Amino acid sequence: MKLFFLSSIFFVSSFAYSQIKIMTFSEAESKHLSVKQLDSLYPSPKKFFDGAADSYFKSQQAFLLSVNGQARKNSTKKDNGILWARFYVGKEGHFDYFLYSFEGKVSEESKTKVLDSLRVYLDNYRFPVKITAAYSFHQLINIGLIRQLPKGRNVISTLDDAIATTRPDTVKILALNQLELTEVPEIIYKFTEMKELNLGGNELKNANIDLTRLPKLKHLWLNANQLSNNSLTLTPNKTLRILNIQNNRFTDVPAAVQACKKLSSLWLGYNKLSQLNDQSFLGLRRLRDINLYSCDLNTLPQGINKLRRLEVIDLYHNNLKELPSSIGRMRRLQQLALSNNQLTHLPQNLRKLRRLQALYAHHNKLSSLPSSLKRLKRLTILDLNHNQFSVLPGSIGALSVVEEIDVSYNNLSELPTQMPQLKRLKKLYLRENPVTEDPMLLSRSKPIMENLTQNKTDVSY
């Protein structure tokens, strides 16, 4: 009996310990748990976890999306407000406190539902990395139907107004986003002078749009719906320039995209593109901008080189370990965004990207740069923070027009003597490197930093 009693106490105390304490900011103040006091107990050091940084940052992004999703699911269309939230995480990896305040128009019922759902979610949340120190963070959470609407005299943003208008010829933007639509309304064809149609954030599982009846349409938003590869149909056209189909259920570039002969921007982020292949990019030769953000890509097909006119490619937050050699054939590329992947090296044929102006490769596993990088004579931004560099090549001094270099959070013990040759360098970020943390190493590179400062370079560490 005594053993059972002690076990019960242990169970109850463990359960109580795991429960997050949720209270308003004013309630916390009355209990002598103000933000200032809690922040001192949860000081958020620079390093508060063990494990891959990429895993933590990806999970943090997913966490914030889930928290916002909980708020949306448990509020109504009549709600229109925000939830100011501050989260406190203990060194054991559990949420200890959640302080909050509601602003705007939010019903009491919605407040209760949102808080109850967040309590369950936070109590059961498990971090993908080991938390080693207490820390805190804040978040603004939208409650209810917060519609992002363009402003202007030539904008219609409700179905009722679309039906009622007697001057459809004056309408340039039809914003029917976030209206819980389950099908594309026929009323859109009333607006033959329309240049932008927003059907994002609805519940569309199928979309068949006859662009021959919308001869002036240039921008089409279908993001955040439930569309899949074969459920999107667009008639052949030469008018559409921008197509946003992010956050749907596509596993490949849908065939409908090829109907847009003069498409210049294609946004495909937040789709799990598991079937992406060399044929996916056929018929897209006029593309100048493609967004493949967070698409669960393990490899990038060689066929990406079919996009010969591409100027911007965004590959943030994928699982790429290398780039295809064919990327060197994309001679018009100006911005290459590779951050938050698993890259261990960059290909030598990057030298062929003579028009490249910005290279974002932070949060990878890079420890060296290709010697050919010095041929990128138009490069102005080089972002390599959160990698594994212990040295930088002297050839970096040949980047004659570079204006910003970020090598924070690496393992650099010295700076190349050629760095002061970068006469146009405006900003150099060196935070969290041995060269700035160790007094002896800092003294060795101090003359280089002073030369840079004399050249009006802002050196941050």
Primary descriptors:
Leucine-rich repeat, LRR (right-handed beta-alpha superhelix), Leucine-rich repeat (LRR) protein, leucine-rich repeat, LRR_domain-containing, alpha/beta, LRR_dom_sf, repeat, 461 residues, disordered N terminus
Question: What can you tell me about this protein's structure?
Answer:
- A hairpin with a 5-residue loop joins strand 3 and strand 4.
- The longest helix is centred in the first third of the chain and has 21 residues, at 53-73.
- The protein has helices at residues 2-18, 25-30, 35-41, 53-73, 108-124, 159-164, 434-437, 439-454, and strands at 21-24, 49-50, 80-89, 95-105, 130-131, 135-144, 155-156, 173-175, 196-198, 207-209, 219-221, 232-234, 242-244, 265-267, 289-291, 312-314, 335-337, 358-360, 381-383, 404-406, 427-429, 458-460.
- Strands 7-8-9-11-13-14-15-16-17-18-19-20-21-22 form a 14-stranded parallel sheet.
- Helix 4 runs antiparallel to helix 5.
- Among the domains are: 20-144, no CATH class; 147-246, Ribonuclease Inhibitor (Leucine-rich repeat, LRR (right-handed beta-alpha superhelix), Alpha-Beta Horseshoe).
- By secondary structure, it is of the alpha/beta class.
- The protein is built from eight helices and 22 strands.
- It starts with a helix and ends with a strand.
